[in-house]
Amino acid sequence: MLALTMGEPAGIGAEIAAKAWLALRDGGPAFFLIDDADRIGGVPVERIASAGEAAAVFPRALPVLHRPLPFPAVPGQPSVATAGAVLAAIEEAVALAKAGEIGGMVTNPIQKSVLTAAGFPHPGHTEFLGELAGTGVPPVMMLASSELRVVPVTVHEPLARAIARLTPELIVEHARITHAALVRDFGIAAPRLAVAGLNPHAGEAGTLGHEDQAIVAPAVRMLRDLGIDATGPYPPDTLFTAHARPTYDAAICLYHDQALIPIKTLDMAGGVNVTLGLSIVRTSPDHGTALDIAGKGVASPDSLIAALRLASQLADNRRKRA
């Protein structure tokens, strides 16, 4: 059983949750929604009092742990007043996962600007979940699809700052967490990691920048000394081609867009955000709140469905290893 959080109430979370239930009710992974049950439309809804009731309800209705909002959400118009409910849903799902009442959690997209205005101190879900369910290592973002898995070493920060912050140790830390997650959660016995270069042509022997020789290559050597099958640095413009992708299990990328552009180009609908390094399983759709189409009935549930399916698979793998 999985818990799905409400996400931004003014966004598409409730709509895609209902559509995901329609797609999965006849044999897909079962889930329940933590949300205001009164705002879920288009499908049968049944309030539940605990996670344990959800499995019996799921075939006939979308199970909802009813958590009323302070006032009705208006599609496309986020409000700081709902920030507390959004964060409480995440905290409740984490608590249920840590208690073993659910196999994992899936988070609907949040509106970071609204949470920040309400005093939320974290850049996003990943860092908040690290605080709630950390394991002593930094939480790491992975984007995964059927064709590609990518991990950005630096995430939501200006590119100049991201490059200035790169060190061999930072790359190694992210790669080690990725390697461990590929073994434990994805069931890959001997993961292969490809490390992207920073500069065009991976620096071309120093003629196009020194970072690949001074920062990235030493990180690859350190990883190999640790017994991890890591190779690189590879020129970023060829690392994600159809010929290259089958040669590795995950690509370690050095900044946000280097990782997210290829996976969103390849599979925007099927991409899933996975948080590595947590004590629990957490996935999320690889898209935002889509305020511009909220309330119009046109939002696609495909990425949420993929996130639910992957969370179920990861939870099963964890149980088997345990």
From TrEMBL:
<keyword id="KW-0170">Cobalt</keyword>
<feature type="binding site">
    <location>
        <position position="126"/>
    </location>
    <ligand>
        <name>substrate</name>
    </ligand>
</feature>
<feature type="binding site">
    <location>
        <position position="273"/>
    </location>
    <ligand>
        <name>substrate</name>
    </ligand>
</feature>
<feature type="binding site">
    <location>
        <position position="282"/>
    </location>
    <ligand>
        <name>substrate</name>
    </ligand>
</feature>
<keyword id="KW-0521">NADP</keyword>
<feature type="binding site">
    <location>
        <position position="156"/>
    </location>
    <ligand>
        <name>a divalent metal cation</name>
    </ligand>
</feature>
<comment type="subunit">
    <text>Homodimer.</text>
</comment>
<protein>
    <recommendedName>
        <fullName>4-hydroxythreonine-4-phosphate dehydrogenase</fullName>
        <ecNumber>1.1.1.262</ecNumber>
    </recommendedName>
</protein>
<dbReference type="InterPro" id="IPR037510">
    <property type="entry name" value="PdxA"/>
</dbReference>
<keyword id="KW-0963">Cytoplasm</keyword>
<comment type="function">
    <text>Catalyzes the NAD(P)-dependent oxidation of 4-(phosphooxy)-L-threonine (HTP) into 2-amino-3-oxo-4-(phosphooxy)butyric acid which spontaneously decarboxylates to form 3-amino-2-oxopropyl phosphate (AHAP).</text>
</comment>
<keyword id="KW-0460">Magnesium</keyword>
<keyword id="KW-0479">Metal-binding</keyword>
<feature type="binding site">
    <location>
        <position position="264"/>
    </location>
    <ligand>
        <name>substrate</name>
    </ligand>
</feature>
<dbReference type="GO" id="GO:0050570">
    <property type="term" value="F:4-hydroxythreonine-4-phosphate dehydrogenase activity"/>
</dbReference>
<comment type="similarity">
    <text>Belongs to the PdxA family.</text>
</comment>
<feature type="binding site">
    <location>
        <position position="125"/>
    </location>
    <ligand>
        <name>substrate</name>
    </ligand>
</feature>
<keyword id="KW-0664">Pyridoxine biosynthesis</keyword>
<keyword id="KW-0520">NAD</keyword>
<feature type="binding site">
    <location>
        <position position="201"/>
    </location>
    <ligand>
        <name>a divalent metal cation</name>
    </ligand>
</feature>
<keyword id="KW-0862">Zinc</keyword>
<dbReference type="InterPro" id="IPR005255">
    <property type="entry name" value="PdxA_fam"/>
</dbReference>
<dbReference type="Pfam" id="PF04166">
    <property type="entry name" value="PdxA"/>
</dbReference>
<keyword id="KW-0560">Oxidoreductase</keyword>
<feature type="binding site">
    <location>
        <position position="256"/>
    </location>
    <ligand>
        <name>a divalent metal cation</name>
    </ligand>
</feature>
<comment type="pathway">
    <text>Cofactor biosynthesis; pyridoxine 5'-phosphate biosynthesis; pyridoxine 5'-phosphate from D-erythrose 4-phosphate: step 4/5.</text>
</comment>
